[in-house]
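Case study B.
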Amino acid sequence: MVYNGTNRKRLAENTRQKIYDSAMHLFSTKSFNKVSVDSIVEMAGVSKGSFYVHFPSKSALVNALISDQVQSADTDYTLFLESFSDDAPAEDLLLALIGKIADVVVDKIGYDKMKTVYKAQIADDVDTQTVTNYNRAIYKLFSDILERGIKRGELNSSLPLELLTRHLMMAIRGITYEWCIRSPEFNYKEEALQYFKLLIEGLRNPSLSSNRQM
Amino acid sequence: MVYNGTNRKRLAENTRQKIYDSAMHLFSTKSFNKVSVDSIVEMAGVSKGSFYVHFPSKSALVNALISDQVQSADTDYTLFLESFSDDAPAEDLLLALIGKIADVVVDKIGYDKMKTVYKAQIADDVDTQTVTNYNRAIYKLFSDILERGIKRGELNSSLPLELLTRHLMMAIRGITYEWCIRSPEFNYKEEALQYFKLLIEGLRNPSLSSNRQM
Amino acid sequence: MVYNGTNRKRLAENTRQKIYDSAMHLFSTKSFNKVSVDSIVEMAGVSKGSFYVHFPSKSALVNALISDQVQSADTDYTLFLESFSDDAPAEDLLLALIGKIADVVVDKIGYDKMKTVYKAQIADDVDTQTVTNYNRAIYKLFSDILERGIKRGELNSSLPLELLTRHLMMAIRGITYEWCIRSPEFNYKEEALQYFKLLIEGLRNPSLSSNRQM
Amino acid sequence: MVYNGTNRKRLAENTRQKIYDSAMHLFSTKSFNKVSVDSIVEMAGVSKGSFYVHFPSKSALVNALISDQVQSADTDYTLFLESFSDDAPAEDLLLALIGKIADVVVDKIGYDKMKTVYKAQIADDVDTQTVTNYNRAIYKLFSDILERGIKRGELNSSLPLELLTRHLMMAIRGITYEWCIRSPEFNYKEEALQYFKLLIEGLRNPSLSSNRQM
DNA sequence: CATGAATGAGCCTTCATTCAT
DNA sequence: TATGAATGAAGGCTCATTCAT
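Model:
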């Protein structure tokens, strides 16, 4: 009130950013437990105390990191799909989206960071709600494509839309996990596209067999 | 002190077994990093030194554990399939196998142990070659079913048999990973069966579209 | 910016009071080391910097807190005794005062705050001169009662008045310490009254033995 | 079994002792929170890991320290009293015991260590059961003296024996606390003896007034 | 083979205080 | 006066592995 805190705020934001960036860098290489707060602040060139001024805990920082990453990716996907015409066949959209996801995961996020997330997710190191939350934008994207495809008769399935959506996301996570444990011999994009073609076939031709009992 | 080789061997084997069993028990509840060598030897009632007599490292022990578990599971699957007639439709066999896998994973191995494996796999805590190895019996099982199905025209795919097999295994791993991060709200068997019906559809009806470009 | 000394003073006093009150509240629950400056300013809704504007250190604040508490208690005791007639027997006055002290300690000050004081006192966390100072009003109160009692022959002792006074205060502190480490199974008032009856007996009947050597 | 572990055990005991002694030394000077595990192991010349081989925690070590100290003191008191004839007057025994306690507390245990205990006790830093436990040998000693004194008519009191015993111990603790916060101007032995003479008077002459209400 | 003491690096978090604005 | 970012030392505890006996 008495003074203009803009400079102070800038300074603070700068410090926070340095910590954030250093962490991002380190987590791109090593997993949650292998990256110490010490190493983060050292790289950031700030004091350890500063870390806890800006982030309540190491977990919280990683949360923020992952959350931002997820949002950024989802924004990418959304913008990407907006460039397509609404009449585009569902199948095309699905494959295009998968391709885009592959690009983002492989090139933008990268192997190590992705692995860190998948590890953290299963290790309960941090709260990865943001990643698995069914309300993530990406679920909506898949859901919309599927819905339109079904409405237009391009796709067919006796299963509820919501279940199909979850299945597709599960497929992506499965591919990503496989990539994480098989890299570098595993070509993410190629495998993802082939795999999804298979799935799309299944969606397109709901033979009577779906009523059979196992 | 008279040396009796036989007794000694028996003793050694006994010690090793106690360690092994205790570890198995502990890893069924907690993850690799949460189970300490101390806790293992305490439960086994042997000394810490003994541990390193029988296992070169904690990782090595977990290796053995996982390897055995994999072999045991694969044996289960193999025996299970042998009870089916060779003429059984590929689709039926696939679904039956998936159901069996679900049963083994959920009931025999169990959530915590499975999670330990999946975590260890992605965390590079241990060498999980045995799990991901393409020579695992289970790959052969899937491959055989697919091969027969294709030969008999029940299934169709322009994709190489080996790729399809890998895809199915990747699907299973994806489901399992999803289970690991979503339990208990995720019903493994149900989701697995529904998901595989989708995949089988895709395998059965290779529409022309599979030649389209994305 | 027009400088208005009055407003500024009011503001300052207000800020100081908020810090003071919050601290009082927190120290009523947790001990010196468990209450952080952070928690105080957070509860007070002021900045950390403000804290150090009004109090040179955490210790100084606690000093003020304790000092005020002591003064307040002593005022209570003084007023309480003023309501008694001067001719009241010394024994009655002593027991009445002890009862009053028990009430104030237990009900007005309360267990946690009292414990904080006793802890701080022995831990040298803060300067607790005000509590132990022989010039505290309460010493004078006890001294007066004793003096009158001795003068009127109700009490007898070869020991100097000043020593007796110190002994009584030491007794109270002893009871309070015992209460601090035995609560809640220790009934302060009951034990205090019984204990003082014993002491008063000793004061009343100075047998020859007081000259004996141990 | 195979080997004679005597040497090993000796070595271990030696290490434990070094830690124990260093801790004893440090706690004689500084309080629980001011003595770090680091400082203990440094003085002991052993590794930090060793500390936790021999003691589960810092608290546990202090527990052991205090417990030993208490036992040692109580043994001193017991042996001391055994040197007295059973016919010795209760009053003499009580004063003799107080004098002995004063000697042990002041000369054997010492101011700083005593303070550490009293601080730890009220700060809940460690479990000081052993100190306050009503089953401590010292309670029995006081109880026996009182009982005999009452039986022989030397002492008189309408209060239960157990309560009187607790009162005496509370008195000692009160004196000790006062000493802790007033040293060095407070002469423990002198004050203790004078104070107990007062108490003993109260015990000897239970005037009718003990039935009065306050 | 069995034992278990010893190691020592490593980690997250807390906190009172300072000071530029 | 008020602010709040920055500091950096301190501290308890875990754990896989080694090695002399």
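Residues 8, 11-12, 15, 46-50, 53-54 of chain C lie near DNA strand F (CB under 10 Å from a C1'). The remaining cases will be described in the next quarterly update.
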